[in-house]
Known about the structure:
This protein has twelve helices and 17 strands. It has about 400 residues and is α+β, with helices and mostly antiparallel strands. It folds into three domains: about 10-140, Rossmann fold (3-Layer(aba) Sandwich); about 140-165 and about 235-335, ATP-grasp fold, B domain (D-amino Acid Aminotransferase, Chain A, domain 1), CATH 3.30.470; about 170-235, Dna Ligase, domain 1 (2-Layer Sandwich). Strand 2 (about 15-20) and strand 3 form a beta hairpin. Helix 2 packs across helix 12.
Amino acid sequence: MILWTIDHSTLEWQTLASMKNGNAIVEDQDHDGRARRMKKKLKVTVVFDTDVPPPTDQDYSKHLEKQVDEAEFDVFHALVRCGHDVKLLGIHDDIHVLLDGLAKDPPDVVFNAAEAFRGLAALDTTVPTILDALTIPYTGCAPSGLIVARDKALSKKVLAYHGICVPRFEVYPIGREVTEAPGMPFPLLVKPQSEDASYGIAKTSIVNDMDALRERVSHVHNWLKRDVIAEELINGRELYVGVLGNEKLQVLPTVEMTFENKPNIATFKVKWDETYRERRGIRNVFPTDLTDEVESRLAEVASTAYRVLGLRDYGRIDVRLTPKNEIYVLEANPNPFIAFGEDFANAAEMAGLSYPQLLDRIVELAVARATPRNGKNGKKPSRTGEETASRPAADVT
């Protein structure tokens, strides 16, 4: 099997902005330097969550100067290079910080980089819900899509309904007795039903008998205070398929997580602990041995999953490819990690989009969704991109 990776040090940001009469005229370039189109400067506010209350003046100049390794700062730098007027707005546990910041300097569009509220990932719907109420355009998934994708059981039911293969599973709510699930052979993978980024997944999440299942379910219940999902462990390759777009979708090159040792599951440490990854020989690469037929089916499955789960602008679909080339969707990731040098950005680079071009494209998609367009029926689409149906008068008799 031939594998190859991207050397992050060779990636270059290739967008040129020229200022004329106070307005940014942005020349978005191909890799050979040829200008592709001219665009207008936008006021973009990058909203992100913080671990502690943000500074009252929202001054992040020191972080930007030191090039602190955080996705929101990468987004800021990239959009500035595209010629946009970009502001940073951090929030922690006070909605008024968000409301006041938006009222003080109203943006054309918000780049939603907030993954939590009050430190809780389950509250990642807070920012987009408020932005919807304020009718402010924003990047990424709507609250409904975030909710469906986060619920690992619900999303699997939706996917299965649309003919997509998913692992068989059983949900164990807090307080329910752990009993054997008919038709689900061991080993099983036990994880929180509604967490992301592999939080709550460890090597001990793989269980091989009922005693281990009961012990792991009890541990997650007590530790995270979350319902638990146990699903069949699909033997195969761990693949990540990025998708970009709304009406028209662009499927990005497939990324594979490779393992030198068992177990080959994406635990929290496997995803986020660089020292552990190095020690265990874990790499994220672009595989070159996938056949055209497999690549085509991966693109079809990822696109279908993206649409039926309600993802927008950009997302990532995690799959397992079995030795028989069967494709199982493990889960969907709306608003995946978008930092420079990470999987999604690298896949976009492989597809010909430099990092600033990727971020600019996502902003364009958000603005396009919010721009009224009269259709043949004279209706204007809603900000979610869906046609708003007329509502019949309520029957009050």
